[in-house]
Amino acid sequence: MDRKGILIVVSGYSGVGKGTLMKALTARYGQYALSISATTREPREGEADGREYFFKTKEEFEELIAQERLIEYASFCDHYYGTPRDYVEEQLEQGRDVILEIEQQGALKVKEKNPDVLMLFVMPPDTETLVKRLRGRGTEPEKVIQQRLVQAVEESKHVDQYDYMIVNDDLERAVEELHHLIESQHTMINRNLDFVRQIQKDLVLLADAQTPGKKN
Ligand code: 5GP
Q1: In this predicted structure, what is the pLDDT of residue 167?
Q2: Alpha-carbon distance 10 to 22, whole Å?
């Protein structure tokens, strides 16, 4: 039986620890392919081109849009972010689960085009922890932090568009919960209709063959 890859969207407020969670999940379990986005924002200290993001100029990004090489894109805090199409399609075809760690506008566009997408939202255990993590990262000036909090308020209004939430209180626990949640999706009947129908056909043939007097 072929196992089909699942397209998974992971969103969550800035500073909630999505990136760390995704890195831990993909390091532990080989079945996941984490899509690397293109962005026009500046690299943060420690980020490398082609690892965290493909860093692009505005012109380069707009060229990707024009050539339809992005599955979705959005503008977030004055910068473009988008998901390159080829990698996602290749990995899904190979049966890997593909994770898009993207913000909400893009997430909703993906959902519109792919009704089968699994929509996950990473929650902080409480808002104080979120703000502490956002400031504690120490990579953004206060103005950017404020901008991201405003964005978080906006995102909080549409969380009901997602299927499941993962509370990121303890990294280890959250990784396991996320993995088991995705694994359970693989056993859903409507994600396995080819297999279900094949068994049904085989059963009909077998029953016919074993019915006395019935010829195939
Ligand atoms: P950051 O600048 O903190 O790396 O990312 C800012 C926001 O952009 C995060 O919510 C992140 O999930 C989102 N993001 C990253 N890549 C993409 C993408 O390809 N498309 C969309 N729509 N959002 C993205």
Answers
A1: 98
A2: 9
Q: Is the pLDDT of residue 106 over 60?
A: yes
Q: Does residue 109 surpass a pLDDT of 60?
A: yes
> Which atom of ligand 1 lies at the shortest distance from residue 41's CA?
2
- Residue 67 dihedral angles phi and psi, to the nearest 5°: -85, 5
- The protein residue whose alpha carbon is closest to atom 21 in ligand 1 is 102
Give the whole-angstrom CA distance, residue 162 versus residue 169: 19
Ligand 1 centroid – CA 38 distance (Å):
9
Name which residue sits closest to atom 14 of ligand 1, judged by CA. Answer: 102
The pTM (predicted TM-score) of the whole model is 0.92
What DSSP element (H or E) covers 148?
A: helix 142-156
Is there an atom of ligand 1 within 6 Å of 106 CB?
Answer: yes
Measure the CA–CA gap between 99 and 37, rounded to whole angstroms: 11
| Mean pLDDT score across all residues of the chain | 94
Strands ordered across the beta sheet of 70-76: 53-55, 37-39, 79-84, 70-76
- CB 117 near ligand 1, within 6 Å: no
Pairing of strands 79-84, 70-76: antiparallel
Rounded to the nearest whole angstrom, what is the distance from the C-alpha of residue 79 to the centroid of ligand 1? 9
